[in-house]
Amino acid sequence: MKVKLSKLISGKVILNTDEYTIYEGIADNLPEVVEHRVVNHGKGEWVRGDAHVNTCENRNQFLKAYLRRYR
Hints:
This protein is an alpha+beta fold. The protein is built from three helices and two strands, in the order αβαβα.
């Protein structure tokens, strides 16, 4: 099931992502995104000012650990 990101956003947001190219231009297509901050893991950068994506990556690890038992 596909859900448009704009339907999940309430109000104005600052979007923090890593350098993955799929995120390029995302702020151009979503008027709710007032700023897009990028953390470049490829260059050893884990935080840039207030921008980090650790919370998202942490949740992904929980999901992977949960799903591992069903392989």
